[in-house]
């Protein structure tokens, strides 16, 4: 029997023995039935039964038992009503609409064949960095995970692209496997993450705030991975040998080589010299190359111009001196009204000769005077920070062009056709969500359209691609939605039996501090990540933890970020480490599952370190939501 099976059966045996020993079988209450249901559902899922239908079946059986204990005559009708109401409630949840749209975007991007170009360009850009292939793999995984959020797709594609290249370069098998599996799982945390949508819908937390909060922890985790690889490659070069010079070279065309040899190796002066007639290259091609070379300068000038306009725009001053609060009158008007009411003699209108003063001759109050010249809003002076930023950025731009050779121009063109389109789409989707320009559902729709445009731009948009993407999207979305239905019925049955109250009383009786509660809850989630996947942990166990957060003064948003970091282990921890099985399916025959498991262990330790850093400095995750959504 395989080790994984032995481990699974041993874990199931421990759960069943604990249930058999700890439950008071002679005096079972409804609360004890709820705990029995919780233990049985975990064992049943581990046996391989479909999670959604296991939750629904267990939920209906135990809900019937709960209703039967109150009124046996209508127990069946109440159970069926519960199922219908919970199903309808899930299907009318607007937050869940974002899931199929984001998944559709991911499948389209996956089929646009962007990843091969992206990996190659980043690999060449990082050629001088220690462990460059591993670093390029992690960066590519982070970008692709942001665009798709589909763990299996990222791990499988990077296993096909990066693993052969890393093994050919002499990289250690364990390091190679660990880099691909850990990088592929970044999509659990980095927005737009389906996990965050599911957690938000389960815990009642704003998905927009979760996306904003997960942004910096995701970057931190990816940065820790990259830092670990660079340090390891520096200290132990045998594990990640540097690339030979032959693989760092970027091929140039003959006419570009001629310009580089005769005019200048630098792209900008070389193209300017060629444009004046010193090259046989067609002028139209020279002009197009020159525009591409000047793109960084144009982007910098445009952004700083817009920033200058923003920081120097006059502050609009609204004059409210002439406004009167509703329901009140000015003092002179009130006095005149009082005189009229007293019946006293009123002063006749002032006359000059026999004619009264014309309206134009009446005195004008200060409030009616036109604004003086000095009161007109004037443009503000740009702050010193703007000029410092402009100076530093321009200096760096000059240094960039001083090192901008024709080889780097070719590399920039590769990045322009692989990295920047994907980056623009990601920034458009996430930026519109984080800055409140669109809801997650609306931004997901824009992302789906962006995926179609990218696939069309790379000539991969055809009926087969759309058909496959639509089918896989429907399959994934149906799985998530039925999970929600099963979870909703299961949670309702658990609450009807009083299982939630029993757990709350037990936890509160321990008199734990908030720190101890967080440690206990995260440890339970960490252990559950071994036999269960993140979807099952979110939909089954989060409804148990969420009601306890208020007692311990724990922000559900912060708790969700810790859970998202923790649940990375659900794909990296044996025996149900799905990332390992995805990678094993596309690995060479000599790469064993044990080697893949061993390679994932250091990255699991890095995840624990990331959780510790987030707990010690909560501002890593809470600062951006607090700034954007005061």
Description:
This protein is mostly helical. The protein has a domain of 65 residues. The chain contains 28 helices and two strands. It has a two-stranded antiparallel ribbon. Helix 2 packs across helix 21, helix 11 runs parallel beside helix 24 and helix 11 runs antiparallel to helix 28. The chain is elongated. The chain starts with a helix and ends with a helix.
Structure keywords:
630 residues, mainly alpha, 28 helices, 2 strands, 1% strand, elongated
Helix share of residues?
over 70%
Question: SSE order, as H and E?
Answer: HHHHHHHHHHHHHHHHEEHHHHHHHHHHHH
Q: Which sequence of strands runs across the widest sheet?
A: 1-2
- Overall outline: elongated
What is the tally of beta strands? 2
Mean pLDDT: 80
Radius of gyration (CA) equals 33 Å
Weakly predicted, low-confidence segments: 333-337, 339-348, 350-362
Number of helices: 28
Residue share in β-strands? under 5%
- Amino-to-carboxy terminus distance: 57 Å
Query: What structural class should be given to the helix and strand makeup?
Result: mainly alpha
Quaternary state of this entry equals single chain
Q: Largest sheet, if any?
A: 2 strands, antiparallel
Write the layout of secondary structure elements.
Blueprint: H1 3-22, H2 30-46, H3 51-68, H4 75-91, H5 98-110, H6 114-125, H7 132-148, H8 151-168, H9 173-184, H10 194-203, H11 207-235, H12 245-248, H13 254-262, H14 267-278, H15 283-312, H16 331-342, E1 351-352, E2 355-356, H17 384-402, H18 406-434, H19 440-457, H20 463-496, H21 499-509, H22 514-528, H23 534-549, H24 556-566, H25 569-572, H26 578-584, H27 593-616, H28 619-628
Antiparallel strand pairs: 1-2
